[in-house]
Design goal:
With 65 residues, this protein is mainly α. It is built from 3 helices and no strands. Helix 1 packs antiparallel against helix 2, helix 1 runs parallel beside helix 3 and helix 2 runs antiparallel to helix 3.
Length: 65
């Protein structure tokens, strides 16, 4: 599967600063980030799993406040 977009999103998430966001929304984003990293590192991951991880992480980033 193509993991480039997921990698880009993980890189973006890693540049964010926790101090700029509420603890609750930051926690949601870091959980999604950890799951996305696990999918990225999984050689058996399917394209569907990669896409789902990307979508969950994108929503978590968008939900930061």
């Amino acid at each position: 599967p193509n993991k480039d977009l997921l990698q880009d999103l993980i890189n973006k998430a890693q540049t964010l600063n926790a101090a700029n966001y509420s603890a609750k929304t930051w926690s949601v984003m870091t959980k999604a980030l950890d799951e996305a990293k696990a999918v990225l590192d999984d050689p058996e991951a399917t394209q569907t799993e990669v896409d789902n991880a990307k979508e969950v992480l994108a929503k978590a980033i968008a939900g930061l406040e």
